[in-house]
Design brief:
Number of strands of chain B: 2
Largest interface: A-B, 37 and 41 residues
Oligomer: heterodimer
Number of helices of chain A: 10
Strand order of the largest sheet of chain B: 1-2
Order of helices and strands of chain B: HHHEHHHHEHH
Strand content of chain B: under 5%
Structural class of chain B: mainly alpha
Radius of gyration of chain A: 23 Å
CATH superfamily of the largest domain in chain A: Rhodanese-like domain
Number of strands of chain A: 7
Helix content of chain A: 40-55%
CATH class of the largest domain in chain A: Alpha Beta
Largest sheet of chain A: 5 strands, parallel
Largest sheet of chain B: 2 strands, antiparallel
Number of domains of chain B: 1
Shape of chain A: elongated
Order of helices and strands of chain A: HHHEHEHEHEHEHEHEH
Chain lengths: 206, 202
């Protein structure tokens, strides 16, 4: 019997491996079952979520979100998970309201980038876990919630004696802020700015 | 036991792993003949499809390998980082990269291979590449608008097409094999023409 040439053998192997692939199932599920994890539909891949958190791929900053909104990022959905009355009182421009208890039944298309936010970020972080558990991978939450939005986008501040690099960065944020109707402010000295930061930190409750 | 087996939390571990992978990559490129500028430029002019065949076979091999190793529980795919897609800047970058590659006849990997084998053009491309990196870093501010546009997040074909992973694998393998077949036909037709021309010459 004549063996096929090495090239034919390789091409044939690739064709066979490709033909069997649709019947092999998801590689993610099988890899996790090796660790004994239970993964039914809608179950959480804890290792993957933990890694996303460790790599800081789970959240965006308020300034990043503002830049996305201003750039008209296609397929971006900003989701406010607070109560209806809180949403009515104030929300991020363009945001839609899906309260936390309804996040589990919300539908997000695969190509949509979902940014969740709440008052301080905790509820949005929990909602992020729900959305990821439902299989949507392009989900983020606003790190420190609406407070970060109000502080860093709507009323950003900088000390007048801040280094040139920080000043340049502030210029960009200030421009972004004005686009959203915010009021960027220059504070007198670093000490005033530090006091302002401390006030904001206390307000955030950290 | 599940990959990755090498602990790369330390800088030394990461550098050692990167060096080993880099050397293996260079050896593979050199063995495939891609250290030759003629072969690389031939791809752009359609006169030599070696680059296409080498790259597509590498893609198929890596894709099938990763898929089945994950199925066997040897590789945990959630460890594999999926780089983010920034559509417009990546298209622009790809065009600049392609123009540079067609002009120089070398890509970053093969320029290292060429430089390591003592060729002046390889060294020149390496120098140009690092100059380009430096200049881009210096003028990043005016480019930031472009740089941060059209973000699509970490995108994979199964996620984007909303199709089962295995089905996408089958499609990519089919496209790859069809591409090989076509490339072989084009190359052998050209070789036959060249042979006829050589035979017909006085």
């Amino acid at each position: 019997m004549r063996w096929p040439s090495r090239r034919r053998w390789l091409l044939g192997s690739a064709a066979l491996a490709g033909a069997l692939a649709p019947f092999a199932g998801s590689p993610y599920r099988r890899a996790s079952s090796g660790h004994g994890a239970q993964r039914a539909a809608g179950a959480v891949d804890v290792a993957e979520l933990a890694r996303a958190v460790a790599d800081e791929e789970d959240h965006v900053s308020a300034v990043e979100l503002a830049a996305w909104i201003r750039a008209g990022e296609p397929r971006l959905r900003v989701v406010d998970v607070r109560t209806a009355s809180e949403f009515a009182a104030y929300h991020i421009p363009g945001a839609e309201h899906i309260p936390l208890e309804r996040v589990a039944t919300a539908r997000f298309a695969d190509d949509e980038t979902v940014v969740l936010y709440s008052e301080l970020g905790v509820h949005a972080g929990q909602a992020w876990v729900f959305v990821r558990a439902l299989g949507h991978r392009r989900a983020y939450f606003l790190r420190n919630g609406l407070h970060e939005w109000l502080d860093d986008v709507m009323s950003p501040t900088i000390a007048e004696d801040a280094p040139a690099e920080a000043q340049a960065a502030f210029e960009r944020v200030a421009e972004l802020s004005q686009w959203f109707g915010g009021t960027p402010r220059r504070l007198g000295r670093s000490a005033d700015a530090a006091a302002e930061q401390a006030l904001r930190a206390r307000r955030r409750g950290c | 036991m599940t990959a990755p087996w090498v602990e790369t939390d330390t800088t030394a571990g990461a550098l050692a792993t990167a060096a080993a992978i880099g050397v293996a990559f260079g050896v593979a490129l050199e063995r495939a003949g891609l250290g030759s500028a003629r072969k690389l430029v031939g791809q752009f002019y359609g006169t030599d499809l070696t680059v296409f065949k080498v790259m597509f076979s590498a893609i198929l091999f890596a894709m099938l390998g990763a898929f089945y190793l994950a199925q066997l529980g040897v590789l945990d795919l959630s460890y594999v980082a999926v780089p983010e897609t920034w559509l417009v800047p990546q298209l622009v970058g790809g065009l600049v990269f392609g123009a540079g590659m067609a002009t120089a006849g070398l890509c970053p990997g093969t320029s290292c291979v060429a430089a390591a084998s003592g060729r002046g053009d390889g060294l020149a491309v390496l120098l140009g590449m690092f100059t380009g990196v430096l200049v881009t870093g210096l003028v990043i501010e005016p480019l930031r608008g472009l740089y941060e546009s059209a973000a699509r997040g970490p995108l994979t074909l199964p996620g984007w097409l909303d199709l089962p992973y295995g089905l996408v694998m089958l499609a990519v393998v089919a496209i790859g094999l069809a591409g090989f077949h076509l490339a072989e036909r084009v190359d052998s037709a050209r070789a036959a023409r060249a042979a006829r021309a050589a035979g017909g010459a006085p």
